[in-house]
Structure formats: structure tokens, C-alpha cells
Amino acid sequence: MAGLMEDFGNFTHAVVRAIPDSFANEDSRRKKTVEVDLAKAQREHELYIEVLRHQLGLRVLELPADESLPDCAFVEDAAVVCGDTALITRPGSDIRRKETEAVKMVLKEMNLNIVEIDDESATLDGMDVLFTGREFFVGLSERTNQRGAEILADTFKDYAVSVVPVQNGRHLKSFCSMGGPDLIIIGSSEQAQRALKIMKQMSDHRYDKLTVPDDAAANCIYVHLPDKGHTLLHCTPEEFPESAKVFERLKDYLLIPVSNAEKVKVDGALTCCSVLIHKKV
Amino acid sequence: MTTEVVSEAEVKKEPEKADEQPAAPQQDAEQESEQPAAIQDGDTPRTASPQTDRKSKEARGLSRFLPPWLKRQKSQSRTEPSEDHEDKAPMEEQLEAPPPEEVSPQEAERDESHSIGSADTQPAKEEKGEEFPERIGDGKEEEDLLESKAGEKEDEPLKAEAEAEKSSLKPAKKMKTVTCQVTLLDGSLLPCEVEKRAKGIVLFVKVCEHLNLLEKDYFGLCYKDHADQKCWLDPAKEIKRQIRNCPWQFAFSVKFYPPDPSQLTEDITRYLLCLQLRQDIASGRLPCSFVTHSLLGSYTLQAEMGDHDPDACCLDYISEFQFAPSQSKEMEEKVVELYKTHRGMSPAQADAQFLENAKKLSMYGVDLHHAKDSEGVDIMLGVCANGLLIYKDRLRINRFAWPKILKISYKRSNFYIKIRPGEAEQFESSVGFKLPNHRAAKRLWKVCVEHHTFFRLVTPEQPPKARFLTLGSKFRYSGRTQAQTRQASTLIDRPAPHFERCSSKRLSRSLDGVPGLGMDDQAGATSLGRTPGEKNGRDPALELSSDSKSKLRVQGENIYVRHSNLMLEDLDKTQEDVLKHQASISELKRNFMESTPEPQPSQWDKRLTASPATSLRLRAQAAFEEEVPSSSLLSSTVACTTSVPAAEGAIAVGSPPAAAHVAEKALPRADGPAYSSNDVGKTAEDKQKSDTLEQAEVEIEETVVIKEVRKAPKVEVTVPEVVVTAVTEKEPEKKPGGEAEGRGGEGVTQRGSTSSDSHSESEDEAEYHPQAPSVSVDQIKELPEEEEELEVEAQPLEAEPTAASPCPTTEEQEPALKDEAQNGHPESQSPQGSVEEDEEDEGEPKLNGDASRAETEGFPQVICCSEPPVVKTEMVTISDTFAAQKTEISTLEVPIVHTETKTITYEAAQVDGAGDSEPGMLMTAQTITSESLCTTTTTHITKMLKGGVSETRIEKRIVISGDSDIDHDQALARAIKEAKEQHPDMSVTRVVVHKETEVMEEGKD
């Protein structure tokens, strides 16, 4: 069956998208009135892509920015890829709906089985989808609803799809991510811990957890590299010094701190900025 | 089997015996040791004749192996002389006569060769008992055997019985045989001839023999009832009683999907599992992705076709295979592409790979049931090896692992689980779900009990206690646990049997051909949320979808029916009553009341329909199973609508009428709602009298309490927890209107030392029932078996409390009940008017006013007892959508139908704070209810010694409830007498006469 655990973390490609200049604009989309330094953000993003390309050895497919889509760099929200199937999402924010088009095109070119959501009532942000290698957890948030989760379940029938309520305008992966096979990295906030508890209850499988002090630091990218083994992209000590220390505990891991200070201001976590794909050749 | 056979058997037997002599001593010893038990059981046969003697011996020897329920039969026969005549006679006969079939030499040989493994063989009990020792020779084996006994018990005893029955019958008259059509997993039909009165095990064994299957514990036979529901054939019960008027068509299927198929011992077992999974996949019951369909399909080809032949064009024939519910050309190409990569793989390897991939599917082995949560939202409950899964549409919204579940119960159409408090939580919470109808609830309950037992328990221990408890009930999961079957499998010592893999092409076709069998579940499974119906066309009803209202549901109910025997059976009369989902309680109530009982379901439906949200469906079930007359109560209720006659047959005199009228009464009540139990009497009576019964309430509760025992005496088991489930069935009691009920409560206390701490599960079946007033309790279905560690708590609701206080007064209880209900106890009396039949199970029907008895009976909390005729409130808690376990309680007021409750709870040594006051453990509780009589037997172990020795106190509470016409004194006298017969040492500690009138409770919502 697809998605065997042994394949977990194995990726060959990454889809990314450049940050448009409109990124830093005070859009209505931004609830926070945080100053975002566009240049800095773009620089961060470039470094991020460099890491994917050179350190992780992925083939990076970079989509051009679209000025009309300020958040287009957060491609994770646009698609959920598991095995050979890509579910093109229907983002909860209507101004972001068009972001999926370019992503869909590129995934199509990769010969993935494309599944689209044609249900107008469904919303799904990729950031709310946590795939553990064994099952899916979907955060029911402001951006993702039940119907969206159902469609995800229909798309990936092999797996159990459990729902986890997520409040406060956040996404499920705003405070967690996979840190390896069966390892969940989780933030310390009450919300994060509650979500973890729910996930644990819903699963037939026992996951290990790694708790970090900062929720934002819990969003990491795990990749299993053929030559380097377990590899984790995580926050820098500058951003979250306490959390960064926690990652030191991961033995046998190649730890790669990646700066994400600007993007995180707009909820742009590490996982947000790419769609990782395992495409057997 | 015919007479001839019998004679042969006898002849052979004799010699065998001689041969066995060496072993004999052991046996004798065993027998002797067991004698006490036997005696209690009252082997009637023993005295009878030489033959009998033999039998008795066997019986005794076998008794070890006998599952509780078997024993119970004996007990029944004794205890219930009056009632059981029919059954009894046969049984005795059985005992006397040598088992015909088994005797055959071949079989005997087989047994020997594969002692454990060959459950199939039907060797007579004796043979096994005697031979085992011999064969086994080495201590090791013996141990295994011992362990396996539990497992064997089921089969063998059953077989033995079944056979015994046959044999017994033979002399009397020629056995009538019936040809069963069994659809095998490869789609072929196997005609099997069995005696008309044969038990399920007989047929199952035959099928397994035909298949040459030793690891058969994962499998079962199912049939479709008249509602087109798939039901598991209970091996311990007569086939005929289970299928009723349905055709003798069965499907051999996987009942428990092994989580790790690689641990199966034989390839043939894996092969059969593959066949089942192919069906599941093709039918959509087991959803998978395109890639997985393709991969599994490629293994199927490899297993069935061998290596890919480049010269042949696969695509030609490949489309004849069904790899998915709907397969595209693209998929077929993918299948072939993958197929080519399997070159060199043997069929067995291909099957193994198939299973390795299939087992990872999230819905593998998940048995889905439609339900609603507290808010009326359609959900699906999935029972699997690890616990209970809750789905909404296709999303998993909650999960309760077995270790988290303390108690499983159902009442009417509500299904409840009590959850172990989390770390931060102090109290246990209960979660309730609304099933489409009572039968569905019961089915789900049984499936849960079985899965829990099978996967979670290591070993069901033998019930030492059985001795004490004369009453036994039967039903429970009688098979071996997975641990046992694995262990038994290790003893399989035979060359891998040769078997032909047939093409799955044929499979698909055949399935089509046999519409009814086999595939049902799928529907449910297919789409969690919205499954359409079952395979057959009928299913519209099946869908639970919110829209579907009562009508639909009525038929559809659950897709999976298991052990529904209880309720299923009668076509004619009985139809299941179903309470359907409740939308608004009040509506239900109204509807219920308004609805006039009509025999036909359809009418009911219509009426029910009237109530938009909720539909109650009452169907009367005419049929009672013989064994479980009690269940009839429900039926009686149903009957009210349907057919009175039916009710009569099964039920006691008084009740039937009541039932019949119930519907009518209901209306009246609605009008003049208030019957208070106390005051009501008059009015109620009047009304009732006129109609006979105003309402019948049926409440059925079955609860299984699972506790994990830490102490468990047994170490063997890995499984930490022992679960014992006891199910008690209550027999329906009917009380006519709100009139006074006479209750006699007897408390008998005995003390004995129980050797084992654990208990086993008890099963309940409602066996029979009684006629109304006169009848006594005889049937007890549950035999409590002990499981090692488990403690049994009395019936969930009631039992526990009862245990604590030996003789609660009924009055007291009632309040308690209410309270509980309010609290959200699962048990709550069902407000809703749904009447269901419980034939076998426990249903205690309560007629309107009668409620009292139930309460009285001793289930303190539980509603089991009858309550005031009028309205009872149930609390239903529905699980939260999300993991958080909430307890929401909705109270419904519903007219009550009669209720039967049987509950047996086993609790672990440490009792959770169920609120039992007793220090001791409650080992078992049984409640037997006849129309007028309800007996609750609770066994407490007051002191638990770690060694496993404990002091046991058996408390028996007998509640006699009845119409106003009941002669209390007489009934009481009889009850006491019977009790004394069973427990000579007992003393009557309290007699309470309680009159209840019907009360309308209106405030409760």
C-alpha cells in the first residue's frame, strides 16, 4: 500500500513558489499588524530553497510569484500530496483560492494523480493536514472544515483520517509537525497539548513526542535522506533559543536550522513554504 | 445423521472406551472433582440409566470444557422444570444418548492427531476428555490443552450437545434433517445436511471440516434475517431458532480479522482470509486507494494465476477479476504492471503479501454500525480489535480503546460505554449512542463483547463459580480468544493441507448469485456515513442518514447484525421493534402513544414516520426463540402491535395481552399522562385492565463491564486486562397496567469459597420465558464464567448497586434508577417508546406499569426492572464528536415498553468506583426474568485473596411482578421453592412486596 512507513520522509521533489512583492502589504488578510520586511522575507525564502536543493538534494520546482496572490509562497496550503496522489485543496481564505492553480499545474506535470475539490462548501488548507506516515490528522480550523476533511479521507482511502479541532485562527501545523517516523514534535501551549492528546486518543498507534517550548518552533520539516539519514529542518536558535536546544536531543539527526523569522510573522511556518513529493522514477 | 449412524457410533464408542481405560482414571478424578458442580448443575441424566450414566460421566468430565452456557442448560433443565418441558426433554435425551456423529472413527482419529487444532472433529466429549490425556502424554501438551480447553469448550461441548441432541432425538423419532446451503468464501455453495434441531456449531464444524480448516476461531457463519440483516449464527444455539423462517442459507465468513495475519499458522487460513478480504474490497466494505487496489489485485493474480505469462494477454481475462468496487482499465493495467514484478512468488507468498498490505488499511477488520450521537447526528461505530472507533462520514472523530472502556451496555436502542477516567479526570464518564433500533444496539453490544473478549482477553478462565451459580446464562462469546487460538495453533501438527485456490473471478460471480449472503456488511462499511444499504436492494432502510426516517430505518437498521438471533427471528409476528433515532423525545413519545399498534411494521413505520425526527418503530416479534423466551417480552411489547398470539406463546399469559395493548394504552397515556407509579395504580389499572396492558416497556440492557485486573491470578496472559463480560438477560416481565405488582424479593445468601477470582463472562441469552406469572426464573442464561482476573460486577446498572446492597428495596431502587437516568446513566430506562424484542437476549419487557419488577430485581440502578409503566426517562449520552469524551445526557421521555434487563458485570478486583459499595468483588450477577418473575443472582466475592481463593456470597434476588391478578403468595412460594432447590443452603433474608402503579412522569425531560 502506498505510503509505507519505510518510505516516510523520503522525498525527491519539492515545489516552492517565490514571494511576491505584495507579500508585505497590509492586506486585509493580515490580522496582525506586524511589520514584515519584504526583502528579509525573500532572502529567507531563498535560503530555504537553497537548503532544500543542496542540503536535502531535492529537485526543486520553483513557481514564479504572483503579485495578485500575496501568500502564494505558502504552497503547502494548496495541495496535499501522499504517494502518487495529490489533492488540490480549496483554501479556506477565498482570496487564496487561485493559488492552487499553478500548483496543480506543476503537480500534473509530475504525473501525479490529481484530485480536486469541487464541493463549494468544502475548505481545506494543507497546513491543517498532518500526515504521520500511518494516518492523517486534519485540524478543523477557520480554514478547514469537516467537508474538506471528508474529501481528504475520500482521496486517501487507505488511511484513517481523524479530525482535531483547532481554534484561535491557527492551523494544526502551527504547533506541531512530524519529526521522524512516529515522532510528533509538539508545542507547549495548552492548545497544542490538547490537540496532541486528541491525536493520541484517536490513533491506534503510539507516537513518540518531542515537546518544544514554542509552538512556532514545533513546525519542522523532516526528511529522510538516503545518505544522511534523519534530517530535520527547524527553527534557528536566534528565533527560539529554548526550543532550538530541544532539538539537540535528537540523536543521529542531521539538524539544519533554517531562519524563518519574517515569514513566521504571517503564519508562514517552515512546512508552509514547500510541497514535498516522493516521486519514484 | 440418522439412526444408523447412531448405532454405529455407539458401537464404536464402547471399544474406544475400553481403549481409553488408562486415561479413564484421570478423567474420573476430574469428574469427581467437578462433581459438585455437576451436582449443582443437576445432571438429570445421571440417574437415568446406564447410558445416562455414561453420559453423565461424560458430561461431568466434559464439564470442564463446557462453556458456561452449556452448563446452564443443564441447570435450566433442572431449575425450570415446568417451563422447559420441551427443551428439557430433548436435552436430557441428548445426554443419555451417545453422540452419534462424533463417534465415527475417523473423527476420533483426527481429534487425536490434532488435538486442539481439530476442533472440527466432533469427537464426543468423552472421547476428547479421555483421550486428551493419553495423547498428550507430555505435560506440555496438557497444559496447552488446559489452556485450550476454554477454547475447546465451546466447540466441543457445543458439538457434543448438538450431537447429543441429535442422538437423543433419534431414538424418539427420526431426525429430521435439513439441507443448508453454505456459501463459502470462494463463492461456491456447500450443501450441508444437519438435523433440524442442530446447533450452529454442528454446521460450522461441518463446514470447517469440509474446508480442512483448523484455525477456525477467526471465522463464523452468518445468515440474513428477514430484515436482510447479516447475523452471525450462534454456535451454541439451535440453528432453527436463530434463522426462524429464513431460508437455511449461510455464508462462511471471517468474524475476527487477525491484526497480524502473518501470525496465522497455516496457509490455508491465510488463504481464506484473503478470500474474505477480496470480497470486502470488491464490495467496497474495505475502502482502498487506487494504488492499493492495484497492488492487492496484482497479488491476487500472482496467487491464483502464478507467474505472469508474457505470451498470454492478461488484459483479456483480467477484467474478469474484480479488484475494486469499480475498476477502470487504467487500474487493470496497473495491476498487470505490478503483477509482472511478482514473478517467482509462490501463491502462499503472494497471499501473505496481500495480507501484509491489506492489514494496514485503516478499515481492515472494522465492523461498522450505524448510529446517531446525542445530537442526532449520523455517525458510524466501528468495532475492531483495538476498541471502538467513532466515525462521522469517513472521518474518525473519536476512538475508545478497549483499555479505556470500563463497561459496555445497551438499553433498548441505546448503546453505552463507560469510559475510564483520564489522568486529569476524576470520574468515569459514559457515552451513549443511539442505534436505529434495539436489535441494532444489541448486535453492536454483542460484537463489542465478542471482539473485546477475542482480542483483549487472554484466556477466559473456566468458571469455577459456575458451580455456585446454577443459573447460567448463555450467551457470550463462547469461542476462544485470539491468544488461545494462537496457542492452539502452535499445536497444529500436520502437513500443510493441500487446497485449491480458485479463481476470484468465480468469486465475484458467485457472490452475485448469492445475494443475500456474505456481503452485507459492506454496505455499511462502504461508506461510513452514508452507507446505502445493504447489498440487496432492500437497503434503503439501511441508511441511517438523517433523512431517512424511521421508515427506512426500520428495515435498514444496521447492516451488521450479529447474534441478533435473539430478536430476529420471527417473521411473522416479530418484527423488530425498533426505536429509531430519537429526534425529539417528546415527539417520539407522542408518536408512540398515538401510534396504534399494528402488526405490520409498515404501518408502524408510517405512524412513526409521522414523527419527523424520530421514528419509533415497534414491531412485534412474534417469534421467540425457544431458548429465549424471555426476550419475548420485548416481543410481547411488540406483539402488542403485531400479534398477540405470538406474545402469548412466548410470553406469559399476562404479558401478552399487555403487550398487545400497549400501543393502545400508550395513547391513552399520552392523554392523561400521569400515571404515577404510586397513585396511578387505579387509573392505570383501569386502563390497563381494559386493554390489558397499557404499555409494555421493554428495556433491555446488557452491559459488559470490563475491568482490567492487575492482580490477575493468571500470569499467563499477556493481556493485562481481563475482561469479563457478563450479560445477563432479563426476561421480560410484563406487568399490566400500573397495577400493583407483587414482588417478592428473596435474598439468598450463600457463601462458598470460590476458587477462582476471575470470572468469566456470562452470556446471556434470554432463554426462555415464562409465562407470565407462574413462570419462574428458570432460565438463566448466563453462566458466569470466571475469568481470571475479571471481576464481575453485577449487571451494569443494577447489578452493581445490588451487589453492594444485597437487598435493595425496590422502591429505593427506583429512585436510584431515576437518578441515574438523570445523571446520564446509560441505562436509563428508555424513554422512548421503542419496543424491541429481545428474544434471546435479555430483554425484559416491562409493561407499562410493571417497571417495578425490574427495579426490584436488583438492579439497583439499572433500569432493568420495570418501572412505572408510563414513561421512563433515559439518559443518553452521546459521544462528542471529538475525542473529548463528553457525557451528554439527553433525557427522553418515552413511554416505556416492557423491559428486560440482563446484565452481568464483571469487575476487576479493583472496582472502579462504580459506586459499588461492596468491598468484595462482584463476580457475577444474573437476572432472570420471566414475565412475572425476575431473579437476580449476584455473586460477590467478599474477600479476594490474591491466591485466587475467595469467599463467595451469592445473593439472589427474586422479584415477582405481575398484573394485578397475580397471586403474590403463590408466586413467592414458588420462587422460594425454586430458589431453595437450587441453593439448599440459602436463606431468605427479605421479602418485599411492592406495588407499583404506573406513573406518568412528565417532568423529566
UniProtKB/TrEMBL annotation, chain A:
Keywords for this protein: Hydrolase
Residues annotated as catalytic: 171, 272
Gene Ontology cellular component list: mitochondrion
InterPro entries: DDAH-like (IPR033199)
One of the record's GO molecular function terms: amino acid binding
Gene3D superfamilies attached to this UniProt entry: L-arginine/glycine Amidinotransferase, Chain A
Keyword Hydrolase appears in the UniProt entry: yes
Pfam families referenced in this protein's UniProt entry, alphabetically: DDAH_eukar
Protein family according to the UniProt entry: Belongs to the DDAH family.
Name assigned to this protein: Dimethylarginine dimethylaminohydrolase 1
GO annotation (BP), single: citrulline metabolic process
Source species, domain of life: Eukaryota
Natural source organism: Paramormyrops kingsleyae
PANTHER family: DIMETHYLARGININE DIMETHYLAMINOHYDROLASE (PTHR12737), N(G),N(G)-DIMETHYLARGININE DIMETHYLAMINOHYDROLASE 1 (PTHR12737:SF17)
